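Subject: Thymidylate kinase structure
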Amino acid sequence: SGCNSESRGALVVLEGLDRSGKTSQSSRLLTYLEGLGHSVELWRFPDRSTNVGQMISSYLSNKSQLDDHTIHLLFSANRWEKRSLMETKLKTGTTLIVDRYSYSGVAFSSAKGLGDEWCKAPEIGLLAPDLVFYLDIQPEKAAERGGYGDEKYERLEFQRKVSQCYQVLHDASWKIVDACQPIEDIEKQLQELVLECVMACQKGKPLANLWS
Ligand code: NYM
């Protein structure tokens, strides 16, 4: 176990609708990998701690209004401002568990009617994940879990559209996990797959850029 300083970390992304369990599973993965002695960090997008992130946060909480294209580009800028740190972390052996990434960007904006290709364009050149988990849940089931807050997008009608956009977006490399299973069962499935991925990256799997 452990990791040597020569090998790179893995970029692991969790995607899914609001209330699909991404945040709990991300922190469980963090604990798991830490327990095995890996260098690992938990990241999330939007990263609300930056200036751009604060603009996003204010938009999401309905404190400001922005044109759909503008907010899309801010979400993307929020990933771009973290790209070089992300690359440094990965290259120096730290695995990153990332709660939402470019796919959220494309799914949520295309659910509003923006074109897929337009939505993808600003994401080109960001680091490509080594592993994408999709926590699969029916929008109705997610809504039943309650806890939809007052943030933008947290409405069943809209989540249905987002769900459809994710269907179009995902490819064969994504690991689709049934998010309605018991929490511990999901956790076990993620653990196995993440470990495989971390090993492959340690053994020299090259880092790539989106979209590839
Ligand atoms: N969201 C998130 C987007 O619309 N585009 C993006 O690029 C990202 C990363 O922000 N409803 C949306 C999805 C969520 C909202 O995310 C806030 P979270 O995970 O609730 O903090």
